[in-house]
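Fold this sequence, please.
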Amino acid sequence: MSKTVKPAKKRQKTPKIGTYRESSLHKALKYRYCETDKTEITVGDYVCDGLSSSDELIEVQTGSFGPLKTKIKALSKKQKIRIIHPVILTKYIETYNKNGELLRKRKSPVKGSKWDIFKALLHAPELIKLPKVTIEISLLDIIEKRKDDGKGTWRRKGITIEDKIPIAWHESIILKKPKDYRLFLPFKNGETFTVKTLSDIAGIPEQLSRKCLYVLHKTGFIERTGKQGNAFVYTIIKTN
């Protein structure tokens, strides 16, 4: 194993407001993909979530990949790294009062899908072009625990999200090279399409379709061939 990897004495703080507190979701993913005795390790100036049984660095990222750009570029020069990104298919929401008593439980009407990966990649599309970087989408269901304590955002009427707990694992989708993203495009080589075309065929909102095509265009997997009204027309660039 590389001499640059050693157990971390202390995890660097995540650049968030307030102190770092690992959610049950993040912790579960970390121990699912890392060797038990190889978590929270330092590689040069960075701290990673851990190391897999095949000596692959593991980084769990539940939100946007934007904050990871510099870190992943630096780490991928040293060794292979796998970014684990959870996509929540079904979410159950439990709301508790200040005393920890359950007030209500409901199933969220919002459903996730593999397409959500493009929300995370929007501000870091170049990461999928790095040769030693693998992105793995982990599709799962969770319980989101909330507390009615008056400290949350106005959108949630003061309710705080306390934790996210995985309760069911479904499948994983592994993306190693730009051409692996071919599975998101139901088109043949040479066929043209727009944001609306993809939205209609894939059954996803146009906003999400737009993010998908933006990312794939930035990576050079698809190209713009013209315009149809105000909409860009795309085609897949042939790959080996």
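Residues 5-176 form one domain. Helices lie at 24-33, 69-75, 117-121, 195-202, 206-218.
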